[in-house]
Amino acid sequence: RGQPSLKNQNKCKHFPFKVKNIDMKTYNQTMRAILQTFLYGIMGVLAGGGAILPGISGGVICVIFGLYQPMMEFLSSPRVGVKKYYKLFIPVCIGWAVGFYVFSKLVAVMLTASYLFTTWLFCGLILGSYPSLYREAGKQGRNRSSGVWFLLGLVVLLIPLAIVKAGILPQVQPTLFWYFFCGVLWGFSLIVPGMTSSSILMSLGLFTPLNQGISSLDPEVLIPWLIGLVLVILLFSKLVTYLFRVKYALFYHVVLGLLVASTLVIIPTEGYHDVWHGLLSLLLCGLGAVCTFYLDSRKE
User: Fold this and answer.
1) Nearest residue to 273 via CA among 135, 117, 118
2) Distance CA 200, CA 79 (A)
3) Other CB atoms closer than 10 Å to residue 200's CB: what's the count?
4) According to the model, what pLDDT value does residue 151 have?
5) What Rg, from alpha-carbon coordinates, does the chain have?
6) How far apart are CA 234 and CA 171, in angstroms?
7) Using one digit for the tens of pLDDT, what is the confidence trace for 214-253?
8) What is d(CA 34, CA 40) in angstroms, rounded to the nearest whole number?
9) CA atoms within 13 A on the CB side of 157
């Protein structure tokens, strides 16, 4: 007449298995921990993808998912941070590495398929972040000096990049030093929310060779790049925290000026075979802008 109760199953001679009593509280805690670890890994994948995509800052992704504050605490005091956040950082770091590698492969394919359309998509991703960055820069107020610092950041970067693009100076040739420089820029993009290094690297002609080297796991690219990235994180995370605390508006307006300058230089000026190329380029630019604007609205 039905199955024996769980309490009496072990006593029943006809029940073929011995079933231990299940502690549902422990089971629920275990499943919750597994799910949380999985979600941390997904967050890491998205943050890694944000690090490789122009306009989508890995730092902004960390802010959206609530990872930025733990990350800065860890960088400021690694010993305390490891004890406090190790359950968070292990899956996030693994996910970040996976996301960075996978998205670098994807970007390499896109650039090979169509450099024109891919660049316009990236321009849109960058443009979509401007409204949020502008609001962020003025969060603690603006004055005349804010505009001066913005123009300073704009001019200081725009002039040399424009000279290189115009061919007055020779194009940068990828070397170990320049891959180290790429790592330095990438390190700053991780610890400064909203800063994206990819647009600067694209304007210098370094983004494609760096991306190809990462996607193919080339040690001549990876080693100097990783050294630059790690050094910036270790040496400048406390300085960035200090600057945000005492010179917030100044610091953010300089970053905004640098971002605008690097975007202006990478806008494609050739490769349009007909009017449809131009229309599709604008469509992709708009699509990229909408995507980044949505992500930034989630951060808000």
Assistant:
1) 117
2) 34
3) 25
4) 92
5) 24
6) 31
7) 888 899 999 999 999 989 888 887 787 787 778 888 888 8
8) 10
9) 24
- Record the pTM: 0.67
Report the alpha-carbon distance of residue 172 to residue 137 in Å, rounded.
31
Q: Which has the closest alpha carbon to 111: 293, 271, 289?
A: 271
Q: Are 85 and 220 in contact (CB under 8 A)?
A: no
What single-letter amino acid sits at 243? Answer: L
CA–CA separation, 291 vs 104, rounded Å?
19
**Alpha carbon separation from 50 to 55, 107, 198, 241 (Å, rounded):** 8, 12, 10, 21
SS3 readout for the chain: CCCCCCCCHHHCCCCCCCCCCCCHHHHHHHHHHHHHHHHHHHHHHHHHHHHHCCCCCHHHHHHHCCCHHHHHHHHHCHHHHHHHHHHHHHHHHHHHHHHHHHHHHHHHHHHHHCHHHHHHHHHHHHHCCHHHHHHHHCCCCCCHHHHHHHHHHHHHHHHHHHHHHHCCCCCCCCCHHHHHHHHHHHHHHHHCCCCCCHHHHHHHCCHHHHHHHHHCCCHHHHHHHHHHHHHHHHHHHHHHHHHHHHCHHHHHHHHHHHHHHHHHHHCCCCCCCCHHHHHHHHHHHHHHHHHHHHHHHHHC
Quick one: tokens of 88?
């968070």
